[in-house]
């Protein structure tokens, strides 16, 4: 079960768009929880030039079966041309918490 649990990381240019994304992902059942972190400074190369920007990191807890839909939603709502979206498998964690993530991200059956 832990192998199916993911920590997805992305960043946003401002708190408003970060919070909007966090809420959308949880409301749509694509994430069980999203941590919206304080601003950080990112240094990166973009189109041949070294850039520096303030960004808001998001830590998104989800499952492998929900990853494709989560990635698609981030891409659809993200203001960046090429958003950072990386997923790290969680190999160990509090079993009850990992089970909660699974439960909260299982697609609900509208016709059951």
Layout of secondary structure:
Layout: E1 5-12, H1 15-27, E2 33-36, E3 40-46, E4 49-63, H2 64-77, E5 86-89, H3 95-105
Antiparallel strand pairs: 1-4, 1-5, 2-4, 3-4
Give a structural overview.
The structure is a single chain. By secondary structure, the chain is of the alpha+beta class. It has a single domain (2-105), classed as Alpha-Beta Plaits, CATH 3.30.70. It has helices at 15-27, 64-77, 95-105; strands spanning 5-12, 33-36, 40-46, 49-63, 86-89. Strands 1, 2, 3, 4 and 5 form a five-stranded antiparallel sheet that branches. The longest helix is centred in the middle third of the chain and has 14 residues, at 64-77. The chain is elongated, with a radius of gyration of 15 Å. The model has no long low-confidence stretch (mean pLDDT 93).
The succession of helices and strands, N to C, reads EHEEEHEH
Strand tally, please? Answer: 5
**Number of folding domains?**
1
Low-confidence stretches: none
Percent of sequence in beta strands: 25-35%
How many helices? 3
Helix content: 25-40%
Structural class given helices, strands, pairing?
A: alpha+beta
**Intertermini distance:** 25 Å
What fold name stands as the CATH topology? Alpha-Beta Plaits
The global form is elongated
Which architecture does the CATH hierarchy give at level 2?
2-Layer Sandwich
- Could you tell me the radius of gyration in angstroms? 15 Å
Summary, kept brief:
The chain has helices at residues 15-27, 64-77, 95-105, and strands at 5-12, 33-36, 40-46, 49-63, 86-89.
